[in-house]
Amino acid sequence: MNLREQLADLMQGTVVLMGIGNPCRGDDAAGSLVARKLSDAPCVHVIDAQDVPENCLWQVVGQQPDTVVLIDSVDLQSPPGAMTLLDKEQTAGYWPSTHRVPISLLMDYLERETRARVLLIGIQPRHTDFSEMMSAAVSSSVEALAGVLKAVIAARGAPAQAEFASQFRKAAT
Q1: Residue 161 parent element (H or E)
Q2: What is the span of the domain harbouring residue 42?
Q3: Over the chain, what is the mean pLDDT?
Q4: d(CA 170, CA 26)
Q5: pLDDT lower than 50: segments of the chain
Q6: Overall domain count for the chain
Q7: Strand, coil or helix: 51
Q8: How far is the C-alpha of 11 from the C-alpha of 6, rounded, in Å?
Q9: Using CA atoms, how far apart are residues 32 and 21, in angstroms rounded to an integer?
């Protein structure tokens, strides 16, 4: 199953997407940039948490989500730009990171407070040094992931829009 199929299957109910990453640290900005590209996406709540996701937890909890998708640069021991979908148990080994709070603790907190399914889309960085530009491989993955998420979001909205249109037509007759 590819990433699009996995996300289509897992993104159910009320969805919150949180992009994480420091815009001043090269490839670390990937999650934040994906969030910015999705800021106008319908039917989901998008948060650009940058490098302080712990400051945005109240926003996530307030949405009462069924699904939370975090997007962050993660050292996957893969080629730059590689992406993978991880659950909380799979993230335990990915600390330290460039963030103050380990991603597994954020995921644990969100699961506990929202009872939502919490997932992480990890993007392998090439470099995360200050004042570096984003690498071409990660930039390409950011574009691809934003496209995949837009497609999944659009597909999620299509059945609801079709149902609304059907109900509207019935009411008009």
Answers
A1: helix 136-172
A2: 3-172
A3: 87
A4: 53
A5: 95-96, 159-169
A6: 1
A7: coil
A8: 8
A9: 5
